[in-house]
Amino acid sequence: MKKLLLLITSFIALSNQAQTFPIGHMSINFKDASRSGGYTISGGIAMTGTGRTIGTEVYYPATVAGNNTAVANGQFPIVVFGHGFAMTWDSYDNIYNKLASLGYIVLLPRTESGIFPTPNHGDFAADIKLLATQGLLLNTTSTPTALATFNGKVLQKSAIGGHSMGAGCSFVAAQNNTTLTCLFNLAAATSNTAGVSSVAGASLVTIPTLVISGEKDNVADTTVQNSHYNPTSSSIKFHSIIKDVTHCDFGNGTSGTCTIGQAACNTPSCNTIYFNRYMSYIEPFLAYELKSDCSAGNTFMSLIQNPSADRVGRKITGTIACATTNLESFNQLNNLSIFPNPAKDKIMISYTTENTSAIQYELYDISGRLILKETEIPVQSTNSTKEINIESIDHGSYILFINQSGYKKAFKLIKQ
After folding, report:
1. Of 17-26, 200-209, 217-226, which range is least confident?
2. Contact 5/410 with Cβ under 8 angstroms?
3. Which of 79, 129, 227, 354 has the most CB atoms around its CB within 10 Å?
4. Of the segments 201-210, 347-356, 405-414, which one has the largest average pLDDT value?
């Protein structure tokens, strides 16, 4: 039985985290009824309603590569990425293609991308904030019908980030925003429009935050990044300074308007080297925060804590390291049992614990699709029982994960 569980657990982990996917693409014109203006993508899928149009390019894990193709099987978190000043969304094709292939649904707003009139940072921040919510809602949105492919496939976790102006606006979008899971930024420029400031408001950012800056950035240097990092109120935050990188090395390095401010490296091989340097932090950070990948959290902490030839400095507050366990070891919860099994209408989970951290119960089918999720705050006790109603799920085999403080155990469950 333990070998079977290990195989199934490994399959689910590979399906949701390690597998690479073909990349699908849609252009969607989202709406914000509370504002006006925006940008409309010609030929993009039109959302209903009136108000500001937020034309957005969406890249996602797909069954086959192409435009408007079906979303791959599984559930995938949302990542919203904001472009830099006078830059376009496709300046970051290396980033969004990589993230989509790893199992993220990436939304890239095309608003506020011109030079004249001057981009409104407040509007761009509001666009980024709205897209994080609208992205999660794709899980149940079926109008227009093209969006139905996302139904049941959006994991309800989201991150926002960006480069330069988009990074600064992401700080604004994250202020007092408790619906977000985490924040990541590349060379954040100071955003300040109509009294809304990325630096002054950083103390209102409480979610886990990753700040990345370039050693040779003379547009938004390490000092600017620390002006965002230092006041951020999150108990988990990191700043990594990447060796040799300039301001325009974040992204694909081809934006002419960016390189007016500071040139990027001028060869594809050079750009690939720098891309791998900063993505080596972003990938495990997002995998831990958005996919609950414990090993990725440990990889990230090992990378940022230990000396690296690719980094010239770092700051660390808190940790995302967690204890990894196999199916024979489970230190937080004891005396775990599930009954009845097979079950028809409900299951009972019996356990003991001295830890009052939240316990998460996640039920997956054997393809790795999340079927239900519940959370419980335990009471220190010699014996506790949790009841879960499974009456509405289909007959078949499932895997139940029970997780507390990073310790996870899996059980095979049969629904009759």
Report:
1. 17-26
2. yes
3. 79
4. 201-210
At residue 375's C-alpha, the angle toward residues 371 and 381, to 5°, is 135
Per the model's pLDDT, the better-predicted residue between 253 and 229 turns out to be 229
Alpha helices in 138-255 (DSSP H): 165-174, 222-229
Farthest CA pair distance, the chain: 67
Task: Using alpha carbons, select from 44, 77, 45 the residue that is nearest to residue 60.
Answer: 77
Question: Reduced to 3 DSSP states, what percent helix, strand and coil does the chain have, rounded to the nearest 5?
Answer: 30, 30, 40
In a 13 Å sphere around the CA of 379, the CA atoms on its Cβ side amount to 5
DSSP SS3 for 89: helix
pLDDT digits (tens, 9 = 90+) for 315-339: 999 999 886 444 333 346 777 888 8
Comparing 80-89, 111-120, 210-219, the range with the smallest average pLDDT is 111-120
Q: Say whether 17 sits in a helix, a strand or coil.
A: helix
pLDDT given at position 323: 61
Domains of the chain: 20-317 (3.40.50.1820), 333-415 (2.60.40.3080)
Amino acid at 149: T
In 3D, which of 64, 66, 156, 82 has the Cα closest to residue 125? Answer: 82
Report in angstroms the alpha-carbon separations of 277 from 12, 239, 253, 270, 371. Answer: 28, 14, 14, 11, 36
Written as six digits, the tokens of 373 are 């999720």
The pTM assigned to this predicted structure is: 0.76
Q: What is the pLDDT of residue 1?
A: 40
What is the pLDDT, as a whole number, of residue 368? Answer: 66
Contacts (Cβ under 8 Å, ≥6 apart) of 27 = 41, 43, 44, 45, 55, 56, 57, 58
Are 315 and 229 within 8 A, CB to CB? yes
Distance of CA 345 to CAs 31, 81, 316, 340, 401, Å? 42, 43, 47, 10, 18
Neighbour count for residue 33 (Cβ, 10 Å): 9
Q: CA distances (Å), 114 to each of 39, 131, 203, 302, 344, in order?
A: 11, 20, 30, 40, 59
Q: Which residues contact 118 (CB under 8 A, 6 or more apart)?
A: none
Mean pLDDT of the 262-270 span: 88
